[in-house]
């Protein structure tokens, strides 16, 4: 087995924009997406939600039991295609005929001494999971209905529609019966907070004279009238700005937020039988599906003619089950086994020994590649062709 890799399904971190060196960023204009949750020690303890935070909630604590794989795998018959001498010769003739300066005679009279199919398989396992986390959140209070009466349902007992299968998605909802109105912790219920630029004074140093009151020519600064201070442009000279947390309301509607994350976890493995084809280029080749199964919990492949595929399937299924069953709810799995193909939906990789020239031998390889494939330039010592 030349390669086994687990595709990363984690989102990449994208750092936010930063100010260029030497530039000034007004602290009052830092983006703020809205209210933030008050400190946890100021919030009441809700039964069933004593431990809030980013850690996922195990589904076994609240949800239904994980689906179980069938006791035995269904019996299957695998029809693995192979390249025949007739197909290989036909590909030679077709390619030679398409070139104005090529003769098709060598292709028509070629004699095969050996024809071997080196099948390469791609096994893919997708596990679609759902995970849930809870945390305190808030929004400015503008007189909304406060749902604070009743018993809060357990995190995994709250019904949430499942989006499209095998597609990453996130959703946040308010946990029923956990809402309450609190004073804004950022502005102490005032609705306004101190201006960070002028430090609540309403005035800042004049930029024209650098606070000196006079210019470089020893003239009185007309911008600050010689005082060295000007009105703060951020707060208009008031010394305070509208609170970004409560949007000037002075109150927050606080509640427990349930965050649901659906993620498609993908495992791909390529089982190559020494074809010599660069493994990294195999991702660009289409494949013919030999097997596709979809179920809440798929069973490993056990009866495939190539034992390497069976072993890889067993390892992948067990690995995903161990990795996700204790932290997520496994909603659905799908496994796919492909044989990688060239042109005409036939096996991708072939080794030939025939009475033909070396250039013509490689033309056969090229014509078997699908349209748009990356050209393959193997080493000469990997070929088996005689002049």
What does this structure look like?
13% of the residues lie in helices and 26% in strands. The strands form four sheets. Strands 1, 3, 4, 5, 10, 11 and 12 form a seven-stranded antiparallel beta sheet that branches. Strands 2-13 form a two-stranded antiparallel ribbon. The chain has 387 residues and is an alpha+beta fold. It has five helices and 13 strands. Helix 2 crosses helix 5. The N terminus and C terminus are likely disordered.
Features:
disordered N terminus, 5 helices, elongated, two-stranded antiparallel sheet, alpha+beta, disordered C terminus, 387 residues
How many strand segments? 13
Share of β-strand residues: 25-35%
**What is the general shape?**
elongated
Helix content: 10-25%
Q: How can the largest sheet be summarized?
A: 7 strands, antiparallel
Structural class: alpha+beta
Q: Report Rg.
A: 34 Å
Helices, by number, come to 5
Element pattern in H and E: EHHHEEEEEEEEEEHEEH
What is the end-to-end distance? 32 Å
| Uncertain stretches of 5 or more adjacent residues | 1-27, 341-358, 368-387
């Amino acid at each position: 087995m030349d390669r086994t890799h687990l595709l990363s399904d984690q989102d990449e971190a994208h750092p936010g924009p930063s100010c260029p060196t030497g530039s000034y960023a007004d602290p009052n204009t830092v983006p703020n997406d809205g209210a933030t949750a008050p400190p946890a020690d100021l919030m009441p303890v809700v039964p069933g939600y004593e431990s809030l935070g980013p850690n996922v909630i195990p589904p076994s604590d609240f949800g239904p039991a994980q689906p179980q794989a069938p006791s035995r795998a269904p019996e299957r018959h695998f029809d693995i295609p192979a390249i025949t001498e007739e197909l290989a010769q036909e590909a030679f003739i077709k390619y030679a005929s398409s070139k104005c300066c090529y003769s098709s005679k060598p292709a028509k009279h070629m004699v095969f001494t050996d024809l071997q199919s080196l099948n390469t398989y791609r096994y893919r396992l997708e596990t679609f999971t759902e995970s849930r986390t809870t945390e305190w959140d808030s929004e400015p209070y503008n007189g909304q209905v406060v749902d604070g009466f009743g018993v809060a349902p357990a995190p995994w007992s709250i019904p949430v529609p499942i989006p499209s299968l095998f597609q990453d998605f996130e959703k946040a909802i308010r946990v029923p019966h956990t809402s309450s109105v609190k004073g804004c912790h950022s502005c102490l219920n005032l609705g306004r907070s101190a201006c960070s630029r002028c430090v609540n004074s309403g005035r800042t140093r004049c930029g024209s004279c650098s606070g000196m009151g006079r210019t470089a020519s020893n003239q009185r600064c007309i911008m600050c009238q010689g005082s060295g201070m000007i009105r703060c442009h951020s707060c208009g000279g008031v010394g305070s700005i509208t609170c970004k947390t409560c949007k000037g309301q002075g109150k927050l509607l606080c509640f427990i937020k349930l965050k649901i994350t659906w993620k498609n976890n993908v495992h791909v493995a390529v089982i190559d039988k020494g074809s010599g084809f660069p493994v990294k280029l195999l991702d660009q080749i289409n494949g013919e599906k030999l097997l596709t199964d979809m179920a809440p919990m798929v069973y490993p492949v056990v009866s495939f003619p190539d034992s390497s595929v069976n072993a890889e399937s067993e390892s992948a299924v067990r690995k995903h089950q161990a990795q996700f069953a204790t932290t997520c709810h496994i909603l659905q799995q799908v496994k796919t086994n492909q044989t990688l193909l060239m042109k005409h939906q036939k096996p991708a990789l072939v080794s030939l020994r025939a009475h033909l020239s070396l250039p013509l031998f490689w033309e056969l390889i090229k014509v078997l590649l699908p349209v748009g494939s990356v050209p393959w330039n193997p080493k000469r010592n990997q070929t088996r062709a005689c002049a």
